[in-house]
Amino acid sequence: MKVLVTGTEGYLGCLLPPLLMERGHEVLGVDTGFYKVGWLYNGTKVTAKTLTKDIRHICAADLQDVEAIVHMAELSNDPTGQLAPQITYEINHQGSVRLAKLAKQVGVRRFVYMSSCSVYGVATEGDVTEASPINPQTAYAECKTLVERDVQPLADDDFSPTFMRNATAFGASPRMRFDIVLNNLAGLAWTSKQIKMTSDGTPWRPLVHALDIGKAIACALEAPRDIIHNQIFNVGDTANNYRVKEVAEIIADIFPDCQLNFGNNGADNRSYRVSFEKINTMLPGFKCDWNAQQGAQQLFDVFSHIDMSQDTFLFRGFTRLKQLEYLIRTQQIDQGFFWK
User: How many angstroms separate the Cα of 87 from the Cα of each of 56, 94, 95, 266?
Assistant: First the structure.
């Protein structure tokens, strides 16, 4: 299958093409290149041919002979959405819906969209399912719900969208991110030997390893059409719901001599536990291979191997907000987040 993957120079995006190519797929990448500067270690055997292009500029010619699209190139995460809410809606909502419509127009048969469990926001019930009410708390999460809403009606006999609501990602990637919870706490433990949390760590977060997200995508692409057609899947494992304090404790156990302190601040109202029963029972071949302990050990091993410094940990290329602020400050991108 010829697959177009958007965001191939991102944290998840750089891990996916090698996985798909190993399974026999032909992969073409698209990425605007905002985070190309960030490269933590040499960890991929092959890379996909990648067009340097904003998703808002993708045209029909770029999709020639493409059978499926995996769309993950958006402005992420919550702090970035707060930096430029209007541009977040323009890229993440309008740009994604435009791409899906273009895909349908030119005959692309499958469209796998990277949504997020952040759409649940504040959950008051038990483990939320794909049928539970959504309650997005940020521009980033709101855009995910809007894309789902606007792309679902495009589904027909010739166009099958699938919506993957990923849990919070973690784990090593050459295009590393240190602005997501487990990776950030592991970086603090390595560079400062202490995790000083301002919060009490009580909110719940579902976690999923970056490679397990890639596995879920591959399974969705290869599954019979009737299983994935216009379906929403929470991506992860129910056993990998953790309180933030539990994640910190896991890391402190793995990283030697790490001191752990919690605060009294419980201001973060984003707390939710997620059920992943649907993907684990319906999607052929999917089962998570990683948990938080394994992910923390993987990061410890990578940091040891590259002798990671504090300067590397704090480098703007590994934090989405820092890198975008740098590109804006140096006037390399304009107010519309296009390269100058």
Answer: 12, 10, 10, 30
The burial class, CB within 10 Å (0-12 / 13-18 / 19+), for 271 is middle
pLDDT per position as a tens digit, 53-77: 999 999 999 999 999 999 999 998 7
Confirm if 56 and 6 have CB atoms less than 8 A apart: no
How far out from the chain centre does Cα 264 lie?
29
β-pairing, 68-71 vs 160-166, is unpaired
- Secondary structure letter of residue 263 according to DSSP: -
Distance, CA of 136 to CA of 115 (rounded, Å): 12
The tens digit of pLDDT for each residue in 119-135 reads 998 866 689 999 999 99
State how far the Cα of 255 lies from the Cα of 128, in Å rounded to an integer.
32
179: left (phi over 0), alpha (psi -120 to 50) or beta: alpha
d(CA 22, CA 115): 25
The answer to whether the predicted template modeling score (pTM) of the entire model surpasses 0.90 is yes
How far, in Å, CA of 143 to CA of 324, rounded? 19
Spatial CA neighbour of 75 closest among 19, 114, 112: 114
Q: Which residues contact 93 (CB under 8 A, 6 or more apart)?
A: 143, 146, 147, 150
